[in-house]
Design a protein that fits this description.
α2 packs across α3 and α11 packs across α12. It is built from 14 helices and 16 strands. The two termini are 29 Å apart. β7 and β8 form a beta hairpin. Strands 11, 12, 13, 14, 15 and 16 form a 6-stranded mixed β-sheet that branches. The chain is of the alpha/beta class. The protein is globular, with a radius of gyration of 23 Å.
């Protein structure tokens, strides 16, 4: 279908394109923007002047010495980072995190809550209370927030702000955007996204050092579940998520261990944090991990204990961790062989142990087809408890850049 156009729509598209190229590439000259977007310099100048007058953009000195110039160099333009504030929220049954950030993702305020809730309604109510506490402690009002981003596990209908399905707790067709708007009495834009996709948005929007080096990257996240959204980091993309990446249910061992989805042999059944904890708990229950038992004492078993037992060299625990890494490596190699991303970002507490990173890299390389194509770059990130909330704020910023400013 050919998309129609009119003057109002053209103005919106032009302004959005200008704002995005300044956001992702700034500081830049007006001439550079015009050349990149194939728009006339007067069109760029008019839009930029208007956005400067509104305080959304700023002029900065051109200190470049790469080219000789005659007379005064043209001023560059960049986003005015503190001109707008965004609220990012990650909502899960086991935790809630909220941050208030600038346009560039710098955290001004943050708050957390680890009270477990299994019902959707309780999670919504608890998260809204957390947001109210954050606003109160920051001295800000709802009117100071230019956009809200919310992320949560499951399959998300981003266009309509609906959680279509979260299988672990049987949440289906939950109107997340509508519920937050109602309980917060918030009239501004609310964006809803899957929590792994939100983390990928956090890289795309807030980490130039990665996003400007690649046109496409995968964000491989291993936590209670496993996901791998694929991002197109071209600045013209309205929705840069190419695939939400429910890779955790790729079948690795036909007829293998049962998965919570009802299938058997899924990647999550071997390599998710929940799976590793469950398998190590079986070791404790059968008395086959004495050092791990000593570490736990009266604490619930966690990945912290598992990594410590692995570092100690407890064979039964090492076997479980090695199995998890092996299947992760196979899965990543399969994705890379099929899609050919340029960068892979791997986010998991497993890789606090450098030996685990090395083992994963070796498994990937053994299964990659690289005879004729260059290898992807692999980046191991240290998990951050607020990365989901920061990513949700990035989703809100990305939405803001699509919006026409009068």
């Amino acid at each position: 279908m050919i998309d129609g156009s009119n003057l109002s729509k053209a103005k919106t598209l032009n302004q959005s394109a200008i704002r995005k190229i300044i956001y992702h590439s700034g500081p830049v000259s007006r001439q550079y923007i015009a050349s990149q977007l194939s728009l006339t310099l007067p069109t760029i100048t008019t839009n930029v002047s208007r956005l400067i007058s509104l305080g959304l953009l700023k002029e900065v000195p051109n200190t470049s010495t790469s080219e000789p110039s005659i007379g005064r160099k043209a001023q560059l333009v960049d986003i005015e980072e503190n001109s707008r504030l965004f609220l990012g929220i990650e909502m899960r049954t086991i935790l809630r995190r909220a941050v208030i950030t600038t346009y560039r993702g710098h955290i001004l305020y943050q708050i957390s809550d680890d009270t477990p809730h299994t019902s959707y309604e309780d999670c919504i109510a608890s998260t809204c209370q957390l947001i109210q506490r954050l606003l109160l402690s920051s001295g800000l009002s709802k009117e100071d927030i230019s956009g809200i981003g919310i992320c949560l596990p499951g399959i998300v209908d981003t266009e309509n702000g609906i959680l279509s399905k979260y299988g672990r707790h049987n949440w289906t067709d939950k109107p997340v955007r509508e519920d937050f708007a109602k309980q917060l009495n918030y009239q501004g834009p609310i964006s809803v996204e899957n929590n792994s996709c939100a983390r990928a948005y956090g890289i795309y929007m807030f980490h130039k050092d990665i996003s400007q080096q690649t046109n496409r990257f995968a964000y491989f996240m291993i936590a209670s579940g496993i996901a791998c959204p694929i991002m197109n980091s071209g600045i013209q993309d309205t929705h840069p998520v190419l695939a939400s990446g429910e890779i955790g249910h790729m079948v690795m061992v036909p007829g293998g261990l049962p998965c919570h989805c009802g299938n058997r042999g899924c990647l999550e059944a071997y390599s998710s944090e929940d799976a590793m904890i469950a398998r190590c708990q079986e070791l404790l229950d059968t008395g086959n991990a004495p050092y791990l038992e000593k570490l736990c004492q009266n604490e619930p078993l966690s990945m912290k204990h598992i990594l410590a037992a692995q570092n100690y060299g407890e064979a039964s625990v090492c076997k479980i961790v090695d199995d998890a890494i092996f299947y992760l490596g196979i899965a990543i190699a399969n994705i890379e062989n099929f899609i050919r991303t340029q960068s892979f970002i791997v986010d998991c507490v497993l890789f606090y142990n450098p030996q685990n990173s090395q083992n994963l890299s070796e498994t990937i390389k053994q299964n990659l087809y690289t005879k004729t194509l260059p290898e992807a770059k692999f980046i191991f990130r240290v998990p951050d408890e607020f990365s989901g909330a920061i990513g949700a704020a990035a989703v809100a910023v990305n939405h803001d850049l699509q919006t026409f400013i009068e």
